[in-house]
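Hi V.,

You were right to ask for the full record rather than a summary. Here it is.
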Amino acid sequence: MRFMIVVRANSDTEAGVMPGPEMFEAMGKFNEQMIDAGIMLAADGLHPSNQGARIIQKGGKPQVIDGPFAETKELIAGYWIIQVKDKGEALSWATRVPGMAEGEYVDLFRVFEAADFAGMVPDAAIAKEEAFRAAHEKPITG
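Predicted structure:
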């Protein structure tokens, strides 16, 4: 099962304030632990919303709105995508995310797998998706 751990933005991340050396070290150690466990598929931090855009469908056409966006609590600052055996294991990793201040939180979402669509889409489409992933994802160990 794949899960996404979402780190929420805050006033510092939206202002472009980079974490201090201690936080970089803590995040590096956390990432190393997940790599060593063979579960980390991806991890990235995101630039502030003033460097992004929002695309809204209006009148049958996409409309682009440049950032920044006012509602910081609705924005994300980074993420990990992990592959684990179940939600319990995903939670055990998500509860160890370093650097969260009092009241801050991360979200954990399960990522859909091709097999989740069995019976809804043709088997050939599921097989094609699974073959693509098998060719492009690293094997999970541990």
